[in-house]
Protein backbone atom coordinates (compact mmCIF):
# COMPACT_ATOMS: atom_id res chain seq x y z
CA UNK A 1 0.00 0.00 0.00
CA UNK A 2 2.70 2.42 1.01
CA UNK A 3 4.84 1.41 -1.96
CA UNK A 4 1.98 2.00 -4.39
CA UNK A 5 1.26 5.33 -2.72
CA UNK A 6 4.93 6.35 -3.05
CA UNK A 7 5.02 5.15 -6.67
CA UNK A 8 1.91 7.21 -7.58
CA UNK A 9 3.52 10.28 -6.03
CA UNK A 10 6.68 9.78 -8.09
CA UNK A 11 4.53 9.28 -11.15
CA UNK A 12 2.62 12.51 -10.42
CA UNK A 13 5.90 14.43 -10.03
CA UNK A 14 7.19 13.10 -13.33
CA UNK A 15 4.00 14.16 -15.11
CA UNK A 16 4.06 17.65 -13.57
CA UNK A 17 7.70 18.31 -14.53
CA UNK A 18 7.10 17.25 -18.11
CA UNK A 19 4.12 19.63 -18.26
CA UNK A 20 6.31 22.41 -16.92
CA UNK A 21 8.93 21.83 -19.59
CA UNK A 22 6.31 22.03 -22.33
CA UNK A 23 4.82 25.24 -20.91
CA UNK A 24 8.17 27.09 -20.88
CA UNK A 25 9.09 26.15 -24.43
CA UNK A 26 12.68 25.92 -25.55
CA UNK A 27 14.76 28.63 -23.91
CA UNK A 28 12.95 29.40 -20.68
CA UNK A 29 13.28 33.19 -21.31
CA UNK A 30 10.65 35.62 -22.58
CA UNK A 31 10.92 36.66 -26.23
CA UNK A 32 12.10 40.29 -26.48
CA UNK A 33 9.38 42.52 -27.88
CA UNK A 34 10.19 44.61 -30.92
CA UNK A 35 9.77 47.91 -29.17
CA UNK A 36 12.19 47.02 -26.37
CA UNK A 37 15.10 46.34 -28.74
CA UNK A 38 17.36 49.15 -29.97
CA UNK A 39 15.64 50.91 -32.82
CA UNK A 40 16.77 52.69 -35.98
CA UNK A 41 16.40 56.48 -35.97
CA UNK A 42 16.78 59.03 -38.75
CA UNK A 43 18.13 61.99 -36.79
CA UNK A 44 20.61 64.71 -37.62
CA UNK A 45 22.28 64.43 -34.23
CA UNK A 46 22.59 60.61 -34.35
CA UNK A 47 24.91 59.95 -37.31
CA UNK A 48 25.36 56.23 -36.55
CA UNK A 49 22.16 54.63 -35.24
CA UNK A 50 22.28 51.58 -33.01
CA UNK A 51 20.95 49.14 -35.63
CA UNK A 52 21.02 49.06 -39.39
CA UNK A 53 17.88 50.02 -41.23
CA UNK A 54 17.26 46.72 -42.97
CA UNK A 55 17.06 43.90 -40.46
CA UNK A 56 16.09 40.91 -42.63
CA UNK A 57 18.42 40.76 -45.60
CA UNK A 58 17.44 39.06 -48.80
CA UNK A 59 19.78 36.44 -50.29
CA UNK A 60 21.22 39.03 -52.67
CA UNK A 61 21.86 41.47 -49.81
CA UNK A 62 23.44 38.72 -47.74
CA UNK A 63 25.82 37.96 -50.60
CA UNK A 64 26.65 41.66 -50.79
CA UNK A 65 27.41 41.73 -47.08
CA UNK A 66 29.80 38.82 -47.58
CA UNK A 67 31.49 40.74 -50.40
CA UNK A 68 31.80 43.74 -48.06
CA UNK A 69 34.06 41.69 -45.82
CA UNK A 70 36.66 41.61 -48.60
CA UNK A 71 38.50 44.64 -50.01
CA UNK A 72 36.18 47.59 -50.56
CA UNK A 73 37.90 48.71 -53.74
CA UNK A 74 36.32 45.65 -55.39
CA UNK A 75 32.82 47.02 -54.80
CA UNK A 76 31.12 48.92 -57.58
CA UNK A 77 29.45 52.27 -56.97
CA UNK A 78 25.99 50.69 -57.12
CA UNK A 79 27.01 48.08 -54.57
CA UNK A 80 28.29 50.77 -52.26
CA UNK A 81 25.00 52.62 -52.59
CA UNK A 82 23.13 49.38 -51.88
CA UNK A 83 25.21 48.81 -48.76
CA UNK A 84 24.45 52.39 -47.68
CA UNK A 85 20.74 51.84 -48.19
CA UNK A 86 20.88 48.65 -46.14
CA UNK A 87 22.41 50.56 -43.28
CA UNK A 88 20.51 53.85 -43.50
CA UNK A 89 16.99 54.80 -44.47
CA UNK A 90 17.60 58.35 -45.68
CA UNK A 91 20.75 60.26 -46.47
CA UNK A 92 21.36 63.52 -44.68
CA UNK A 93 20.26 65.43 -47.74
CA UNK A 94 17.00 63.49 -47.88
CA UNK A 95 16.52 63.77 -44.12
CA UNK A 96 16.98 67.53 -44.08
CA UNK A 97 14.88 68.27 -47.14
CA UNK A 98 12.44 71.12 -46.82
CA UNK A 99 8.75 70.78 -47.37
CA UNK A 100 5.78 72.92 -48.28
CA UNK A 101 4.19 72.50 -44.89
CA UNK A 102 4.68 76.17 -44.02
CA UNK A 103 2.16 77.17 -46.66
CA UNK A 104 -0.47 74.95 -45.07
CA UNK A 105 0.36 76.27 -41.62
CA UNK A 106 0.24 79.91 -42.73
CA UNK A 107 -3.00 79.33 -44.60
CA UNK A 108 -4.60 77.67 -41.61
CA UNK A 109 -3.50 80.43 -39.26
CA UNK A 110 -4.81 83.18 -41.51
CA UNK A 111 -8.05 81.30 -42.08
CA UNK A 112 -8.77 80.96 -38.39
CA UNK A 113 -7.81 84.58 -37.81
CA UNK A 114 -10.44 85.44 -40.39
CA UNK A 115 -13.03 83.29 -38.67
CA UNK A 116 -12.20 85.05 -35.41
CA UNK A 117 -12.67 88.38 -37.13
CA UNK A 118 -16.10 87.33 -38.36
CA UNK A 119 -17.06 86.26 -34.85
CA UNK A 120 -15.93 89.62 -33.48
CA UNK A 121 -17.96 91.50 -36.10
CA UNK A 122 -21.04 89.46 -35.22
CA UNK A 123 -20.46 90.16 -31.53
CA UNK A 124 -20.14 93.92 -32.05
CA UNK A 125 -23.29 93.99 -34.13
CA UNK A 126 -25.59 91.68 -32.24
CA UNK A 127 -24.25 91.31 -28.73
CA UNK A 128 -22.56 94.39 -27.31
CA UNK A 129 -24.52 97.41 -26.05
CA UNK A 130 -23.77 101.03 -26.97
CA UNK A 131 -20.35 102.52 -26.12
CA UNK A 132 -20.11 105.14 -23.32
CA UNK A 133 -21.19 108.72 -24.10
CA UNK A 134 -17.66 109.92 -23.37
CA UNK A 135 -16.63 108.63 -26.80
CA UNK A 136 -18.90 111.00 -28.69
CA UNK A 137 -17.28 113.66 -30.87
CA UNK A 138 -18.47 116.58 -28.71
CA UNK A 139 -17.13 115.03 -25.56
CA UNK A 140 -13.80 114.15 -27.22
CA UNK A 141 -13.31 117.72 -28.48
CA UNK A 142 -14.10 119.11 -25.02
CA UNK A 143 -11.69 116.58 -23.55
CA UNK A 144 -8.90 117.50 -25.96
CA UNK A 145 -9.45 121.22 -25.31
CA UNK A 146 -9.09 120.60 -21.58
CA UNK A 147 -5.91 118.58 -22.15
CA UNK A 148 -4.41 121.42 -24.19
CA UNK A 149 -5.41 123.94 -21.50
CA UNK A 150 -3.62 121.84 -18.91
CA UNK A 151 -0.54 121.69 -21.16
CA UNK A 152 -0.47 117.87 -21.17
CA UNK A 153 2.85 116.53 -22.56
CA UNK A 154 4.11 119.93 -23.71
CA UNK A 155 7.58 118.75 -24.81
CA UNK A 156 6.92 115.89 -27.22
CA UNK A 157 3.22 115.03 -26.86
CA UNK A 158 -0.15 116.48 -27.67
CA UNK A 159 0.39 120.06 -26.42
CA UNK A 160 3.53 120.36 -28.49
CA UNK A 161 1.42 119.87 -31.63
CA UNK A 162 -0.91 122.77 -30.80
CA UNK A 163 -0.16 126.34 -31.84
CA UNK A 164 -1.30 128.41 -28.85
CA UNK A 165 -0.94 131.72 -30.70
CA UNK A 166 -3.04 130.87 -33.68
CA UNK A 167 -5.33 128.51 -31.70
CA UNK A 168 -5.02 125.66 -34.15
CA UNK A 169 -3.00 122.51 -34.72
CA UNK A 170 0.58 123.05 -35.88
CA UNK A 171 1.14 122.25 -39.53
CA UNK B 1 25.43 58.27 -59.38
CA UNK B 2 26.97 61.37 -60.92
CA UNK B 3 29.99 60.73 -63.04
CA UNK B 4 31.96 63.72 -61.72
CA UNK B 5 33.10 63.74 -58.11
CA UNK B 6 31.38 66.19 -55.81
CA UNK B 7 33.69 68.72 -54.15
CA UNK B 8 34.73 67.54 -50.71
CA UNK B 9 32.55 69.30 -48.15
CA UNK B 10 34.09 71.05 -45.18
CA UNK B 11 34.74 68.43 -42.54
CA UNK B 12 36.31 70.34 -39.68
CA UNK B 13 35.84 73.54 -37.65
CA UNK B 14 32.12 73.60 -38.43
CA UNK B 15 31.17 74.86 -34.97
CA UNK B 16 33.96 77.43 -35.04
CA UNK B 17 32.70 78.80 -38.32
CA UNK B 18 29.13 78.93 -37.05
CA UNK B 19 30.19 80.60 -33.82
CA UNK B 20 32.25 83.22 -35.64
CA UNK B 21 29.32 84.02 -37.90
CA UNK B 22 26.85 84.29 -35.06
CA UNK B 23 29.14 86.20 -32.73
CA UNK B 24 29.80 88.76 -35.46
CA UNK B 25 26.13 89.00 -36.27
CA UNK B 26 25.01 89.27 -32.67
CA UNK B 27 27.55 91.97 -31.93
CA UNK B 28 26.70 94.01 -35.01
CA UNK B 29 22.96 93.65 -34.48
CA UNK B 30 23.06 94.69 -30.85
CA UNK B 31 25.42 97.61 -31.47
CA UNK B 32 23.29 98.62 -34.46
CA UNK B 33 20.10 98.55 -32.41
CA UNK B 34 21.73 100.59 -29.65
CA UNK B 35 23.06 103.14 -32.15
CA UNK B 36 19.70 103.39 -33.91
CA UNK B 37 17.94 103.98 -30.61
CA UNK B 38 20.48 106.60 -29.54
CA UNK B 39 20.31 108.56 -32.77
CA UNK B 40 16.63 107.99 -33.43
CA UNK B 41 15.04 108.32 -30.02
CA UNK B 42 17.33 109.35 -27.20
CA UNK B 43 19.16 112.29 -28.80
CA UNK B 44 16.08 113.90 -30.41
CA UNK B 45 14.27 113.58 -27.10
CA UNK B 46 17.10 115.28 -25.21
CA UNK B 47 17.17 118.02 -27.81
CA UNK B 48 13.41 118.51 -27.59
CA UNK B 49 13.57 118.93 -23.82
CA UNK B 50 16.53 121.34 -24.10
CA UNK B 51 14.66 123.42 -26.69
CA UNK B 52 11.51 123.48 -24.60
CA UNK B 53 13.18 124.64 -21.45
CA UNK B 54 15.59 127.12 -23.12
CA UNK B 55 13.11 129.97 -23.15
CA UNK B 56 10.48 128.55 -20.82
CA UNK B 57 8.67 130.98 -18.57
CA UNK B 58 6.71 129.02 -15.96
CA UNK B 59 4.77 132.03 -14.68
CA UNK B 60 3.50 132.91 -18.14
CA UNK B 61 2.48 129.29 -18.63
CA UNK B 62 0.75 129.31 -15.25
CA UNK B 63 -1.22 132.47 -16.07
CA UNK B 64 -2.30 130.96 -19.39
CA UNK B 65 -3.49 127.77 -17.67
CA UNK B 66 -5.28 129.81 -14.97
CA UNK B 67 -7.06 131.88 -17.60
CA UNK B 68 -8.28 128.67 -19.26
CA UNK B 69 -9.83 127.70 -15.92
CA UNK B 70 -8.17 124.36 -15.20
CA UNK B 71 -7.11 125.15 -11.61
CA UNK B 72 -9.45 124.62 -8.68
CA UNK B 73 -7.47 126.68 -6.16
CA UNK B 74 -6.42 129.46 -8.60
CA UNK B 75 -9.54 130.71 -10.37
CA UNK B 76 -9.26 133.02 -13.36
CA UNK B 77 -8.92 136.73 -12.48
TrEMBL record, chain A:
Gene3D superfamilies: Cytochrome c oxidase subunit IV (1.10.442.10). The chain crosses the membrane at residues 104-122. It comes from the Eukaryota. GO terms for cellular component: mitochondrial inner membrane; respiratory chain complex IV. It is found in: Mitochondrion inner membrane. GO terms for biological process: mitochondrial electron transport, cytochrome c to oxygen. Component of the cytochrome c oxidase (complex IV, CIV), a multisubunit enzyme composed of 14 subunits. Component of the cytochrome c oxidase, the last enzyme in the mitochondrial electron transport chain which drives oxidative phosphorylation. Belongs to the cytochrome c oxidase IV family. This is Cytochrome c oxidase subunit 4. It comes from Ciccaba nigrolineata. The lineage of its organism: Eukaryota, Metazoa, Chordata, Craniata, Vertebrata.
TrEMBL record, chain B:
Pathway: Energy metabolism; oxidative phosphorylation. Its main location: mitochondrion. It is a single-pass membrane protein. InterPro entries: Cytochrome_c_oxidase_VIc, Cytochrome_c_oxidase_VIc/VIIs, Cytochrome_c_oxidase_VIc_sf. GO terms for cellular component: mitochondrial inner membrane; respiratory chain complex IV. Pfam families: COX6C. Keywords: Membrane, Mitochondrion, Mitochondrion inner membrane, Transmembrane, Transmembrane helix. Component of the cytochrome c oxidase (complex IV, CIV), a multisubunit enzyme composed of 14 subunits. The complex is composed of a catalytic core of 3 subunits MT-CO1, MT-CO2 and MT-CO3, encoded in the mitochondrial DNA, and 11 supernumerary subunits COX4I, COX5A, COX5B, COX6A, COX6B, COX6C, COX7A, COX7B, COX7C, COX8 and NDUFA4, which are encoded in the nuclear genome. Component of the cytochrome c oxidase, the last enzyme in the mitochondrial electron transport chain which drives oxidative phosphorylation. The respiratory chain contains 3 multisubunit complexes succinate dehydrogenase (complex II, CII), ubiquinol-cytochrome c oxidoreductase (cytochrome b-c1 complex, complex III, CIII) and cytochrome c oxidase (complex IV, CIV), that cooperate to transfer electrons derived from NADH and succinate to molecular oxygen, creating an electrochemical gradient over the inner membrane that drives transmembrane transport and the ATP synthase. PANTHER family: CYTOCHROME C OXIDASE SUBUNIT 6C. Belongs to the cytochrome c oxidase subunit 6c family. This is Cytochrome c oxidase subunit 6C. It comes from Bubo bubo.
Amino acid sequence: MLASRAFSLVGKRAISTSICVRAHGHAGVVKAEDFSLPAYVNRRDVPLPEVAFVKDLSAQQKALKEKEKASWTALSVDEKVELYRIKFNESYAEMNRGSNEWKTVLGGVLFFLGVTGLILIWQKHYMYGPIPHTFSDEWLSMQTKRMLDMRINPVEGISSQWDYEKNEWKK
Amino acid sequence: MSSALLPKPQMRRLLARRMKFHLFGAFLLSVGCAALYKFGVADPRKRAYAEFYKNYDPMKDFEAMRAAGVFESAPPK
